[in-house]
Amino acid sequence: MIDLLTKLPESALGILLAGATWFGFNYAVLADRALQRELVEPVQALCEEASIADTPAPVLGSGIGSLLGMPELDDLEARIIDSAMPEPLSRAQKLARCSCGALTTTKLRFDYAVHTASFRLIPATEAAALRERAAVSALSFCK
Question: What pLDDT, on the 0 to 100 scale, is given for residue 143?
Answer without folding.
Answer: 42
